[in-house]
Amino acid sequence: MEVNCDCLFVLGTLFATSLCMAVIYLAHRLGAIYQLFHKVEAQSPRHGGEIVADVLRAHNVQFIFTLVGGHISPILVACEKLGLRVVDTRHEATAVFAADAVARLSGTVGVAAVTAGPGLTNTVTAIKNAQMAESPLLLIGGAAATLLQGRGALQDIDQLSLFKPLCKFNASVRTVRDIAPVLRRALAAAQSGTPGPVFVEFPIDILYPYHVVQKELSPKGAPKGVMGRIINWYLQNHLNNLFAGAWEQRDLSPIPIHIPQASAEQVQQCVELLSRARAPIILLGSQATLPPTSAAELRKTLEALAIPCFLGGMARGMLGKDSLLHIRQNRRDALKNADLVILAGTVCDFRLSYGRVFNRRSKIIAVNRDQSQLLKNSDMFWKPSIAIQGDAGTFLTKLSEGLKNYSCPREWTEGLKEGDIKKEQANREKSNEKTEHHLNPLKVLHHVDNLMSDNSIIVADGGDFVGSAAYILRPRGPLCWLDPGAFGTLGVGGGFALGAKLCRPESEVWIIYGDGSLGYSIAEFDTFTRHKTPVIALVGNDACWSQISREQVPMLGSNVACGLSYNDYHVVAEGFGGKGFLLKREDEDSMDAIIQAAQDKSKKGNAALINVLIGKTNFRDGSISV
Q: DSSP assignment of 14-72, as one string?
């Protein structure tokens, strides 16, 4: 009998302990324990949007791009009150593209805020582009109230699952007190390692004041009796947990970021390898332009190394427009003859024929922050002699310091430059050929290149016409060229130009559009007008998706879906408040005057669009023909 009593006592104790632990766990999950020690200021008019703005300001964010929605209004209002410039666009993708441009040009995190559901789904392409371009970007998204998620609320979808493959960091803020720590972690993640986009979701009840949320949570027609009291307690507890400790002082400062670096031993190995090279080449990619090495410092480093460079992506213009070290043409031939190649933030993807362009005997030094990008396709067509997971800009600086007595053979550099000049001269001669109809696009681009100001920023958004522009227009300096990157996204033009003009209001910002890509963001001329960002758009109008048509017609015998019209895009721009110009064959002799008139309008504060009626071009493997 005593044994049974003892067993019952033990079982009872275990049951009571388990029950107690379950109650404590439930109380913790419901925030009841936290509320015992942290105050709920029910009378406070403050709201969560103010904390978001405080964190952004503490991280030196100057601009927040948006398309307004009720889910995120408190954030936008608070940012405006703190002096952050809120810039609203006509499409959510444009807001993200603008934030991307700010990130690339400023070295900080670009920020876009959009409303829930379709507001967020509209950003997917732009976020994927930022991921592939390795741009540090914070996407803020609205969301349904915490208690209504998954219950059919307006614009309620599983947003975190949508962005998980696209962003380095994803989080949904569940209480007001979590806003600052979650945002700080997100902003640090965006810049650490290989930069990229991050996503933070803000349910609507996290952002509005207590009394507003309380009114929405108050039960209407709740059951009476015990069930009614349980429901009322649960809702009140949930409300209190949202705001418990909300306005306590918290750290808003940036969290230190981690950037991988080459070791001293790796740098020394590269110094020894390069010191024996007779025909070296540097392929500089966008990643080399990232902080902590400034563009000015990187340019000095490249000039000190005095090694011929091919510049791609954001690295275009790194050496100015007339550098003897910058080689623009005949890259394939140069790589076949090189005995050493430095891939500084450059990836062996389709742009380098997956590595097939390299000479099998060449030594290859690859430097990249991302391990997967560092060794991409190295199992197929190429093998790095030295592979370094680290920051390319810092690596080049250390390499230069270790090569004080090295001198790249002059005949190698001069030979590459001579080939460069010959190819460009041949392309210039093609610009003088008469097209069957309309203007020779190469001639137009040469005239624009001659007239661009020395502080110009070029935004590339298109296929055929932009492909020609990439070989003719010369970026004036570091960080003066913006293109989508490896994803090849059409539609970046309006957003990129908006971000660029806000970052550098003194610069002349040019968007080089194809007539196909223009359709994605021509409505942003309204944004340019309202926000006083007078950019200049040059539209190569050949009434066709020419890059597709050129291969589709001979291969498949049809031009279906490739034809467009010679539309009056200059008139559309004027409808949105800009200034439009039409440039056609009859205006060939006054081409410079029309281009300069557009520049003058821009200087006076008007966004301008030059609609250029052009003939067909051919851009393939670096060759340009009319």
A: HHHHHHHHHHHHHHHHTTHHHHHHS---TT----HHHHHHHHHHHTT--EEEEE--TTT
Tell me the C-alpha distance between 282 and 302, whole Å.
Answer: 9
Q: β-strands 608-613, 85-88: how paired?
A: unpaired
Give the DSSP letter of residue 326: B
Tell me the mean pLDDT in the region 562-583: 97
The amino acid occupying position 499 is: G
β-bridge mates for residue 344, sequence order: 284, 367
* Residues 258/260/264/270 CA torsion (nearest 10 deg): -160
pLDDT digits (tens, 9 = 90+) for 27-57: 656 666 776 677 888 899 999 999 999 999 9
Q: How far is 608 from 597, CA to CA, in rounded Å?
A: 9
Q: Which residues of 181-218 are buried (b: 16+ CB within 10 A; e: fewer)?
A: bbbbebbbbbbbbbbbbbbbbbbbbbbbbbeebbeeee
- Structure tokens, 80: 């405006």
Q: Which amino acid is at 162?
A: L
Number of other residues whose CB lies within 10 A of the CB of residue 519: 16
Whole-angstrom distance, CA of residue 550 vs CA of residue 562: 10
> 């400062």: which residue's tokens?
253
Torsion of CA 309, 310, 311, 312, to 10 degrees: -150
Query: Averaged over 371-383, what is the pLDDT?
Result: 92
What pTM does this model have? 0.93
Note whether 459 and 484 are within 8 A (CB).
Answer: no
Q: Which residues pair with 200 in a beta bridge?
A: 140, 171
Count Cβ atoms below 10 Å from residue 259 Cβ, excluding itself. 17
- Rounded to whole angstroms, the Cα distance separating 376 from 363 reads 17
Residue 260 CA to residue 390 CA, distance in Å, equals 5
CB 531 within 8 A of CB 87: yes
Is residue 124 within 8 Å of 166, Cβ to Cβ?
Answer: yes
Region of poorest pLDDT, from 129-138, 157-166, 384-393, 611-620: 611-620
Count of other CB atoms within 10 angstroms of residue 559: 13
**Token pair 């560092």 in the structure block, residue:** 374
Q: Are 173 and 179 in contact (CB under 8 A)?
A: yes
Strands (E), 492-588: 509-514, 536-541, 579-583
Q: Quick check: 446 and 619 in contact, CB under 8 A?
A: no
Q: Which of 136, 186, 187 is nearest to 369 (CA)?
A: 136
Strand-pair partners of 583: 612
In this structure, the strands spanning 170-172 and 481-482 are unpaired
* Of residues 509, 518, 542, the one with CA closest to residue 619: 542
* List of residues 6+ apart from 519 with CB closer than 8 A: none
One-letter amino acid at 504 equals R
Q: Do the Cβ atoms of 338 and 359 come closer than 8 Å?
A: yes
Spatial strand order of the sheet with 309-311 comes to: 309-311, 280-284, 340-344, 363-368, 386-389
User: Which residues on adjacent β-strands are paired with residue 113?
Assistant: 66, 140
CB-based contact 266:386 (threshold 8 Å): yes
pLDDT band, very low/low/confident/very high, at 445 (cuts 50, 70, 90): very high
SS3 category, 159: helix
Q: What is the DSSP letter of 544?
A: B
- Region for 64 from its dihedrals, namely left if φ exceeds 0, alpha if ψ lies in -120 to 50, beta otherwise: beta
What is the crossing angle of helices 591-603 and 441-451, to 10°?
50
Measured from the Cβ of residue 268, the count of other Cβ atoms closer than 10 Å reads: 14
Non-local (6+) Cβ contacts of 153 within 8 A are 144, 145
Residue identified by tokens 């940036």 is: 254
